[in-house]
Design brief:
The protein is mostly helical. It is built from eight helices and no strands. α2 runs antiparallel to α3, α3 runs antiparallel to α4 and α4 packs parallel to α6. The radius of gyration is 17 Å and the shape is globular.
Length: 210
C-alpha cells in the first residue's frame, strides 16, 4: 500500500471517529464537513487506485453519498427526501460497478436470495407507515436491495464488497425503522457505525479485487 493510500485511510478513520464521538454535540460548526470527509477520502482512494470503469463508478457513487451526507446533516427533517435521492443515485452507480460477470449460483446466489427476502419483509412492515413518503422510500428500498443483489452476484466483486453492501442495507434499515416504525436505541451511533463500515468495506473490496 502506498503512503498516499495509508494517509487517505488515516483521514477516513480519524474523521469517522471524530464524527461518531461528537454525535451528541450536534449541531456544531462545520459538522457536515466533518461528516463527509471520511467518504470523500475513500472516493479519492478509489479514483487513484482502481482503474477502469469500476473505479470511476464507485468513486462517483462515493461522491453522491457525500452529497447525501451533507444534505441530511444540514436539515434531516426538511431535506430527508433530497438526501434519499442523492443516496439513490449513489446506489445506481454502485449497481453499474457491481453488475458485471454475474454468477447466479452457489453462495452468491444464496446471499442474493436472502437480500430479496429481507427487502420483502422490510417492505411489508414499512408500507403501511410511509404515507406521502411511499413512492420515494419504496423506490429507494428497491434500489438498495438491487445494489446488494448485484454486489453478491458479480463474480468479480470481492467478498468485502458484499459485506459493505450488507452494512449499507443495515444502516438504512435502522434509519427506516427509527423514522417510520419505532425509535431505535442509540440509533445515530448504530447508523453511522454501519454506514462508515459499509463505505470502508466497499472501497477496500474494490481495491483488493483490483
Amino acid at each position: 500500500m502506498s503512503n498516499t493510500s495509508k494517509m487517505l485511510y488515516g483521514i477516513f478513520f480519524c474523521f469517522a471517529l471524530l464524527f461518531i464521538v461528537t454525535l451528541n454535540l450536534r449541531p456544531f460548526p462545520f459538522v457536515h464537513i466533518v461528516k463527509v470527509i471520511p467518504v470523500y477520502s475513500l472516493a479519492v482512494l478509489v479514483f487513484l487506485n482502481v482503474l477502469g470503469s469500476k473505479g470511476k463508478l464507485i468513486g462517483i457513487g462515493l461522491l453522491f453519498s457525500g452529497v447525501g451526507d451533507i444534505v441530511l446533516e444540514l436539515d434531516r427533517g426538511n431535506y430527508f427526501v433530497y438526501g434519499l435521492g442523492a443516496f439513490l443515485v449513489a446506489h445506481l452507480f454502485y449497481i453499474a460497478a457491481f453488475a458485471k460477470n454475474l454468477q447466479i449460483k452457489g453462495p452468491r446466489a444464496v446471499v442474493a436470495m436472502v437480500m430479496i427476502a429481507y427487502g420483502l419483509v422490510v417492505g411489508f412492515f414499512l408500507l403501511p407507515k410511509l404515507g406521502d413518503m411511499l413512492v420515494p422510500v419504496v423506490a429507494y428500498l428497491a434500489v438498495i436491495i438491487a445494489m446488494g443483489i448485484f454486489a453478491a452476484l458479480g463474480a468479480s466483486n470481492h467478498w468485502l464488497i458484499i459485506v459493505g453492501a450488507c452494512f449499507f442495507i443495515a444502516s438504512d434499515s435502522i434509519i427506516a425503522v427509527n423514522r417510520f416504525l419505532t425509535p431505535v436505541p442509540a440509533s445515530s451511533l448504530c447508523i453511522m457505525l454501519s454506514y462508515y463500515s459499509a463505505q470502508f468495506f466497499i472501497t477496500t473490496g474494490a481495491l483488493k479485487r483490483h
